[in-house]
Amino acid sequence: MTSSTESVTRDWDGLTIPTAGTYLLDAAHKRVGFVARHMMVSKVRGEFAEAAATITIAEDPMQSSVSATIQAASINTSQADRDAHLRSPEFLDTEQFPTLEYRSTGVKSRDGNEFVLLGELTIKGVTRPVELEVAFEGAGRSPFGQDIFGFSASAEIDREDFGLTWNVALETGGVLPGGNCHELVAGRSDAQRNPLGRDATGTRSAAGRGRPGHGIEGRPLAPARRALLPWMLHNALRDATVPSRRAPGGHMGRDVEQGAFSREDRVRYRQKVRRCLDVFALMLDDFGFDADRPMTGLEIELNLVDSAAEPAMRNEVILADIADPLFQTELGQFNLELNALPRLIEGIGFADYEQDLRSSLSRADERAAKSDAKIVLVGILPTLTERHLVADNLSTNERYRVLNDQIVGARGEDIELDIRGVERLQTHTDSIAPEAACTSLQFHLQVAPDSFADYWNASQAIAGAQVAVGANSPFLYGRQLWAETRIALFQQATDTRPDELKAQGVRPRVWFGERWITSIFDLFEENVRYFPPLLPICEDEDPVEVLHAGGVPELGELRLHNGTVYRWNRPVYDIMAGRPHLRVENRVLPAGPTVVDMLANAAFYFGLARGLAEADRPIWSQLTFSSAEENFHVAARRGMDAVLHWPRLGEVPVTTLVLDVLLPQAAAGLDRFGVAPAERDRLLGIIEQRCRTGRNGAVWQTEAVWAAERHRGLGRDAALHHMVQRYAELQRSNAPVHTWPVD
């Protein structure tokens, strides 16, 4: 048996396969899921929560074997009535037949790292031959030095072969599975939650992982004129609109009174959001989504400061004076948000973005000056103190008060902030106001349903590198913390979990995720399964009726719920000009320092995401999910000094990784978008120079403060104010931050 210090892979006839030995499926980091056609409406998707498997890899891999046991009663389709019926004697009869069993009988090789596993599947006492399509997805070591490998396996079966022939429509709107069932044996690797490696017997663990799959597009809608308005659906929790909620048996229009939601509201909302989820599943399989050309979008969150570099609590007056629908309020009274018009980035699309953004920001700055304020593009405004971030300084829009009440109420106690960086911050707050300090730059990329998983997985894989080169939030409450403190602050300031729930492993609402995905559906289904509703507001729409009538369902409840789960890469379902589309919303970066810096970050993200999403061998088949998450947090802490893990390189300085590997891939991705070579080289050249000089926004801020403290003899508070004044001046030059002088 190979020790954990030896390679976990070997070469066999030109293929990379696991080292011979006995492996166990990690019970905490696997996924055994299935998709089954509804007889009348859509598809049922679900999983078996409890399963175990032993994988014996022989020296001759053709002699390898697999045995697996699935606990039938652990079936979960996110609908309690349906699950109860599936466990009953009329279907799986889990009391008499508690397990589903699979035993392999042989192995056949296919192209690449793909195999066919011959075997027998037993369900409800009936055994039938079943062939599993198996792919070895990659191997590596967790951050704890333990060997792991990933695989996927799938098969299509007909449940009637196993005597499962009963069918009925439920009064709740659910329909039991009928016909063929596509069973996906997949998994996830997450060494953070339950490190993979040797168990008590000395055998090594294997983590299955689902491969990105492909949806089916059909029944396209009639061509529609592409709308020229920006994507205005704000999916961040603080952006969720809360105008009213539906009264029992009534209609939309009754104002939310003191943010109080009844038990009936929550039950109704849960039923409605699950109904939306079923309709969304059907749409993914049988609907025409707008995916003709890859539109992009940008959102920039802004800070307002006064002449003394203090936060200016006057966004309402300034917004009214700007009078531009592209600008909106944000959580804090010192915040605004600018939505760029979505566009293609082919040709000189980035130059068009730059011109529009500079024009909009210049016009807004002129209006702000009338109120003795100016705009600063930064991840966290360094002059913020605890006295600024209080409930009274939330924007006056009612939605923010309701959101604050729901988050603090869900937690049941004050929110604790404890961030350990170069210095340490320990404090607590009775509101979500500290979250207003987090001002971000968000990228939107429209993708087709069948490629969404590829782009989301790619976005997760590169999040660490993005944050490292783009960090711009080193100070909070006068303390130097992480290079990108916004990451830690955002998670803690919106955490609905008291300490006891954290100790139980309950997932936070600010969430990196825990596995690679095979479909956008995986993310929406996780949202519904793991997170209770914060804003149980039901709309009048019946999505099933709309779909049957040939319309496009709004899926308002599903979208609102998605907006209360803070993924760093968020799935978005939206409708423009009567046609639905899907987007990846990349949320990992801070605002600033300049427009050209932000567009360099955009070029790096869009190009790299496409380059990796369309690569012959996906990065997520070589990098464990836990490594991607660890990279993200290391990069947030260390910024340009981060050392990240990367396939075939091991531990590597992020600057070396970007210069030698990621920038060429980003350039190739931009070429596929059709970006003009001069624009490509101009923007990626800024990322290159950041790496060569070792200076991003966070580095410049800390160097400027140190200089003010050491050379000017200023205290920390005065040094921060001096730095912000200088930062605002240099920002208006639009010179990249790596060229800024440190006074």
Automatic annotation (TrEMBL):
Pfam families registered for this protein in UniProt: GCS2, YceI
Gene Ontology molecular function: any one: ligase activity, forming carbon-nitrogen bonds
Lipid/polyisoprenoid-binding YceI-like domain ranges (all copies): 22-179
InterPro entries: GCL_type2/YbdK_subfam, GCS2, Gln_synth/guanido_kin_cat_dom, Lipid/polyisoprenoid-bd_YceI, TTHA0802/YceI-like_sf
Catalytic function, reaction form: L-cysteine + L-glutamate + ATP = gamma-L-glutamyl-L-cysteine + ADP + phosphate + H(+)
Family membership: Belongs to the UPF0312 family.
Protein name, as recorded: Lipid/polyisoprenoid-binding YceI-like domain-containing protein
